[in-house]
Each structure stands twice: as structure tokens, then as C-alpha cells.
Amino acid sequence: MLHRRDGSRFPPDVTLGIQAKEFNLGFIRPDNLVSHGLRVFRCLLSSVSLFQVNVQDALNQAMDEELERDERVFLLGEEVAQYDGAYKVSRGLWKKYGDKRIIDTPVTEMGFAGIAVGAAFAGLRPICEFMTWNFSMQAIDQVINSAKTYYMSAGGQPVPIVFRGPNGSSAGKLTNIYCFAAWYGHCPGLKVVSPWNSEDARGLLKAAIRDDNPVVFKANELMYGVPFDLSEEVMPKVERQGAHITLVSHSRCVGFCLDAAAVLAKEGVECEVSIFTLSARVCELATFQLQVKQWRRRGWLLFLWATNKLCYFLIFFLHFICTYISVSVSYDQKELLDIRTATTHLKLG
Amino acid sequence: MSFSANEAFLLVDWFSVFQDRRTSLVLVSCNGVFIQSCCCGVWINLWKYSYVPYGSVLPQMLLCCLSRLAQPQVFLVVASRSYADFTPEATFDIKKVDLHRLEEGPPLTATLTREEGLKYYRTMQTIRRMELKADQLYKQKIIRGFCHLSDGQEACAVGIEGGITLSDHLITAYRAHGYTLTRGGTVREIMAELTGRRGGIAKGKGGSMHMYTKNFYGGNGIVGAQVPLGAGVALACKYLGNDQLCVSLYGDGAANQGQIFETYNMSSLWKLPIIFICENNQYAMGTSVERSAASTEYYKRGDYIPGIRVDGMDVLCVREATKFAADHCRSGKGPILMELQTYRYHGHSMSDPGVSYRTREEIQEVRSKSDPISMLKDRMLINNMASIEELKEIDIAVRKEIEDAAQFATTDPEPPLDDLCSHIFANDQPFEVRGATPWTKLTSTS
């Protein structure tokens, strides 16, 4: 059974995952149990400790460790100090580090984003938190132009800053639910990461803080409360093995892919939820294509950039493809069919 | 021959001889005081007829006798003068500044030493010549892209630097060539950067608006964005506790930007050591201050932040005001706002002739009445702090320096194509970058 860190048990609906509840699939993901079992077995063998940590706590741990490790790291944003973080990601940090390092700002995104970038110019390593990435639109100039400084100064002025915040859809909301991964992903000089599980969240945030470049770190708010195994080791990025179709996704949609894969497994279609983009940079597309080509002889590559309720569409679509169109298409880079599903072209909030 | 003296100005141990070849008149002077004359072999002592301090009479008499004895050797025309010809230091009255939320302002007098005066003159003249040379090179299409010139505003750059140290920080907007120079850049590097060559201060990749030196953060293209950046630098100064401050400059056009008010709020709240300086050159591109701002008293726009309005064409005024502001910040009182009333002779940028929104007469009037370089020059000459020849020599030296720099900037090679994609990320592994087409691959190194 899955447990919280303090030993208490999760209620069953959370254990099953919010996706299961939302889409009424009503079963525990069988692949996760298998891979979970394998991991436990491997960890028992290698005596590595294994905790159930949700993404929120993983991010908290990452920031705590980096604040302790380097004096120059500090956090600023709205409600990060005394409120313990709008989504409780920075819980306990103000009590531990004080006003100097955990700074509550007024509701002025452009101003405090600029201040964070200026502090990075002068040698500090700020973490600038936006309450959601929608509000970063107020400050988008400061975020994008922080990426140009190292280039325009020909290497003289690095900007070691991390912009953090929740991105994408949330439960039952119509406003402030837009996904900005593609927007920022198009900016050269900016590293954009969008992790899914706790391990990736923790590892990537630590790497982002230690990186000397501007990093845009997006997590999904709905994933904050979802627990995952967290060990000292870095886990492989193939979440599910399969031979017919590769599903590529980022952030919360990886969960959808896993659910869809489980349903399709019953139909005999093996989906590989393998490479999920941790980085939303579009030009890494070529890298995936090459990797897939190396691994597999045939298959279709599907990109899932989506947000709400896409799982139904995905299952339907894949089922359609597998039933009515032969899957045994010989695979060649030129014949690679990539189909992108994404948000409906409707900007809400 | 050397004489010990009881007056400082008699420490010179040689005397100058002036020979007028037409009338065979020889004048012997000591310390600028003519003590003897010889005309057709008739020697006359002049020290009786010129003022000499009481204690120097005896040495001067001795000098006269000796010079008479050494007559055959006297006809060495020594061209240089002793430094003590000039006043080493003088005090000038400067304009009173307007105050906002302050009881006292900077002092009403400023002391200028000779060395400082010559240094300011040289720097201002260098900026002026450099900007005019950039104008010339732009018209020859050797400099392309954006070029915003700051001739007329030299006193701001030089005066501010006079009030802070090189360990303090400065950030400004795109009219940045003068500040790059005062912050440690060389003319060669600046001009090569304008022409986009590899010898430039940003290796030819930054251009006019992205020049960086130590503790100078450019050069920023987005109007007003540099002000929160400056507050961030000030936050770092306070965080690291190093008693440094940050000077954050913006223009009268940028003064209406929202992010500047956001910055006023946060810097006042957290008492950041920042000096906000509004360089009010009366025109935001082509919009005069009356047409763009509901309140043209930019020094009061900080509201709860104390402000002073300073004559930005007088280098001493600017210097004293900056010193005052720096003391205010360093004492932990938080931010302060300075408005410098200045003027630019060129248009907004090289694509603007600068006369469609203002008259030529206005430009001429400012040039004749308030030019910063002329003002300093007149002050120094009137108070005998320098001679006109000396200043001319400085002008010639500056001209030569600019010519050499322009020559370098024109002949230096452009950065190699391999550099196109480098410096995208810092301290990273080299990686491939997609070029303009999917099959063009370039490598990026840190």
C-alpha cells in the first residue's frame, strides 16, 4: 500500500491517482505495480532507501538542500515566506532561513522578476517563483531577456537564475490554467524543464539551481499531491515498455499516457510510454527520432502536449489506428509519422 | 643651481628665458615672475617692479646676480613651464538643487583640483569626439544597426563617475557609450564593438546596446527594464553586505514605465542601496516631456523616495549631487532619486535628424550657453588652472586616440562564423544547434 512520509495512509481515491478518479477508469495502473515491485526488489538488493514522496515535498527538499549548500541561493516570490508558499512548496523554509533568504514580494511580477535577474547578474543564484506561469506573462520580458545576456555579452555575463512555478491545467478551473511550455521552449538560451514525478522534480530542480543558465521550471499543480517512489538513484526514463507505439509526453500528460497504455494493453496494442520530454525544447525532436530509430524497427511516434480530458481521445484514436490501419509499417525516418495532439485552440483564462 | 625657499613657489630650480628675436629682448622669469630683462646687453632687474612675496627677495636677488654672471649660457630657451604656474585648486559656486522630501541637499560650492579638472576635461572630450566619430562612421555605413549618441550629455557620465567608485555598480539604457568609457572600457573596444569586430568589448556580438565591463551591466534595449535589474544588483550588494551601491539610470521617456514604480516600491520597502537617476534630456525620442508626462517633475515621481533635481550640464553639480546621494544610500537610508536636466545635440538615434520635433535654434542655444565641455574649460581658464595650449594639447591627443580607434575598428576582422552559436549557455557541454534550415547544423560552445 502507498503511505505518506509520516506513516499515515492515503485515502483510496488519492492512491488510485487523480487521473483514475477523473476518467473513471477505476483500476490501479498495472504497469506501475509491476515496475514498482521491480524497483522495490532492486532497492532491497542494493539497500537503497525508498520513500513515498509527493512532488511538492520533493521540490521542498530540493530547495532546502540547495539553500543549505550554497549561501548565494535565495528564493523570492509572492507568498513564499510566511504563507509557506501558495501551493506549500516552500513550507518551512522561511522559518529555517529567515527574511534574508526567503523573500516575500508584493504583487508586482515584472518588478520582482527584474530584481531576481539583476541579483543573478551581480553573482547571487536566485529562485524566482511565479504563483502560476500565467502570471509570468506580466514579466515575460524579464524572463526572455535574461536568456540573451550571456550571448550578447559574449560570455561575460552569465545569469544563474531559476524561474519556478505551477503550469498547465488544474482541477475544475477555467482561468489561470494555460500551459506555457511551448511559449518558453521557443526561446534560445532558456532551458525549459517540465518534470512529472517526484524524482525528476527533485533532481531537475537541484540541477537547475546549480546550472549557470536561466532555467524555466514548470510543474503541474495537480501533481503536487501525488506520491511517488523517491530513492537516491536516478531511475530510467522508460515508464512502460511496448513494441507498437511510442507515446511521448511531458508533465501531467505522462499519467494520461500510462492510463491509455493500460487500456490499450487489453486490446493487444503495446504502447511504450518511454521518452517523455523533460525539456520542452522543440529542437530536441530530432534527438528523439534518432533514438527511437535506434531502438525500434517499427512504430509510430505520438506527441502529447495536452491538458484536460485528452485520454479519451487518445484511446479512441489509437484504437482506430490499430484496428483499421496496419501497424506493421516499416519504419524509416522519412516515413516517421508523428501526430501531435495538443490543447484545443482555445485560450481560456 | 638650486635654491631653498621659504615660499612654495620658489622650489623650482631653473628659470625660463623668453627671447624675442625681433628686438633681442631677453626676459628671465622665475616662477612666472619676470625678474630680469636684457635688451641689447642692458640688464634690468624687474623684481622691484613686480610683486614678490616678502621672503623671496634675497633668493631672487641672488638669482639675478647669478644669471648675469652666467650670461653666455642663459640663451637656452626652455619651452616648458613649471606646474606651479597654475592654481592647484579652486572652489566654484554651483546651482542650488531642488529638493523633494529632504531637509538638506548637496553643498552649494564644489572644489575642483587641477588634476581632476584635466581628467574630466579629457574624458568629456573623449566622449564627445567618440560620439562624433561614430556619427561619421555610421554615415559611411561602417557602423550599422542602432546607434544612440550622447553628445551633450557628457557631464552626466563623468560627473556620476566622479561621485562613486569603480567598485560600485551602474546600469543604464541604450545611450551607453559614455558610461562604458567611464566604467573602464577603452575607446578602441567601444568603437570596435560598434562596428561589430572581434576586438570589441563584447567580441562584436553585442553591438551598441550591449556593452559590459566589470560592475557595469550595459546597455539594455528594453526601455525601463534596466531599472528593476539595477534594484536586483542593489539587493545583491545588500545581501553580500559589501557597502557597495548601484546607480540605475533611465530617461524621461522610461520614467513613465510601470516597472519603474514597482521598483520604487520594492527598493523603498527593503531599503536597497540604489540611486535612481533620471537623465531628462527633454525629449523621449520625439516626444517632449510636456507631451508625454502629466508631471514633468521627475524627481518627485518617486513619491515616498527623496529626490533632487540637478543641472546635468555642469559636471561639478552632477558630481556633488552623486556624492550626496551615495552618502545617503551608504548610510542605510534606502533609495534616492536624482533628476539630471541635460540635453542631447543629436537626434534620438542615427536615423533621426533631430529637428522635426525641436528647432535648430534651440539646439544652438543650448550648445552656446550650456555646453558642458565649454563650461569646464572656461572655469579652468578663468581660474588659471590650465592654459589654453595645454587644453589644445589634450584635444589633439584625444583626436589622435579616436583616429587610432576608428582605424582599428574599421580594419579589425569580424568575429568568425564558428562564434555565431557560441555563448548560448554558460559552463555547458558543446551541443548542436539547428541553423536556418533543418539540415544546417552549427555547434555551440560555452
TrEMBL record, chain A:
Its EC number is 1.2.4.1. Pfam families: Transket_pyr (PF02779), Transketolase_C (PF02780). Keywords: Carbohydrate metabolism, Glucose metabolism, Membrane, Oxidoreductase, Pyruvate, Thiamine pyrophosphate, Transmembrane, Transmembrane helix. The chain crosses the membrane at residues 300-327. Its cofactor is thiamine diphosphate. It catalyses: N(6)-[(R)-lipoyl]-L-lysyl-[protein] + pyruvate + H(+) = N(6)-[(R)-S(8)-acetyldihydrolipoyl]-L-lysyl-[protein] + CO2. The keyword Mitochondrion does not apply. Residues 53-226 form the Transketolase-like pyrimidine-binding domain. The keyword Hydrolase does not apply. It is an enzyme of class 1 (oxidoreductase). GO terms for biological process: glucose metabolic process; pyruvate decarboxylation to acetyl-CoA. One of its GO terms (molecular function) is pyruvate dehydrogenase (acetyl-transferring) activity. Heterotetramer of two PDHA1 and two PDHB subunits. The heterotetramer interacts with DLAT, and is part of the multimeric pyruvate dehydrogenase complex that contains multiple copies of pyruvate dehydrogenase (E1), dihydrolipoamide acetyltransferase (DLAT, E2) and lipoamide dehydrogenase (DLD, E3). These subunits are bound to an inner core composed of about 48 DLAT and 12 PDHX molecules. Interacts with DLAT. The pyruvate dehydrogenase complex catalyzes the overall conversion of pyruvate to acetyl-CoA and CO2. This is Pyruvate dehydrogenase E1 component subunit beta.
TrEMBL record, chain B:
It is found in: Mitochondrion matrix. Keywords: Carbohydrate metabolism, Glucose metabolism, Magnesium, Metal-binding, Mitochondrion, Oxidoreductase, Phosphoprotein, Pyruvate, Thiamine pyrophosphate, Transit peptide. Residues 122-416 form the Dehydrogenase E1 component domain. Its cofactor is Mg(2+); thiamine diphosphate. It catalyses: N(6)-[(R)-lipoyl]-L-lysyl-[protein] + pyruvate + H(+) = N(6)-[(R)-S(8)-acetyldihydrolipoyl]-L-lysyl-[protein] + CO2. Pfam families: E1_dh. Its EC number is 1.2.4.1. One of its GO terms (molecular function) is pyruvate dehydrogenase (acetyl-transferring) activity. GO terms for cellular component: mitochondrial matrix. GO terms for biological process: glucose metabolic process; pyruvate decarboxylation to acetyl-CoA. NCBIfam families: PDH_E1_alph_y (TIGR03182). The pyruvate dehydrogenase complex catalyzes the overall conversion of pyruvate to acetyl-CoA and CO(2), and thereby links the glycolytic pathway to the tricarboxylic cycle. This is Pyruvate dehydrogenase E1 component subunit alpha.
